[in-house]
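Name: Branched-chain amino acid ABC transporter permease
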Amino acid sequence: MERFVQLVVDGLATGSIYALLALAIVLVHRATGLINFAQGSMAVFSTYVAFAFVQSGLPVWLAIVCAVVGSFVFGAFVERVVIRRFEGGSHDVAVVVTVGLFVLLAGLSGTIWSYNHREFPSLFPLESVSVGGAHVGLRNLGTIVVTILVMGLLQLLFLKTKLGLALRAVSGAPTSAALSGIPVGRMLMIGWGLAAALGAVGGALVAPKLFLTPSMLDFVLVYALAAAILGGLDSPVGAVVAAWFIGVAENLAGGYIPFIGDDLKIAVPMALMFLILVIRPQGLFGRKQVVRV
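Structure predicted for Branched-chain amino acid ABC transporter permease:
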């Protein structure tokens, strides 16, 4: 039983890392209708900024706060200067632009801070506590708690605030939203800014578990995209639940199925994800789109 609890909690902590990037992807999609493939490299760039603040002598929590604020401004800048030039055309072109941003920011991070591995300090203590007989690190618990808080705040933003309703209106029908008096351009900037800030939080939580490198989140982004699609690209709750499902499923498969182990454990949640999407293409919490013809 102790091993089971250990695997589940570790899987939830790993899934929470996927969830933070998945939430950023969902946020951009709900605001603009696009999937941002540059989300991982934007988060890494923000983490390097936080690392620079730490090196200058700031406490780690203050460095992360400064990086999050800077990331919001940077995300809004990217939308205003780069993405907006392509938003009126094909979505395929805009998606390709985000792929180009991914390559550009990864190269820029390596050029400025080098490609050497760097250690990033943890926001949470490294001690562990006993949960059901298993030893659970406070860093893992902190990551889970932060993910739950972010998910709840995003859900409140979209469902209970005028800003969230405006973001949803701009994503669903930008022309109608503009005719209703909603500043479409400003909403798109805010959406990208919030997603970049959220990515900075995810990067700061991932970096202490890994070495900080320009490619730190490349593989995590694959899981995050899978979680966002599985949960439903318009559902913050769905993205988190799907990310937890992926994290726990791969941990349990690697721990209890001998021939799978660590090398093939990712195949289990991906296979289950494929089956779920065949049955429910809009994702676990996504909504079917009804089109009038």
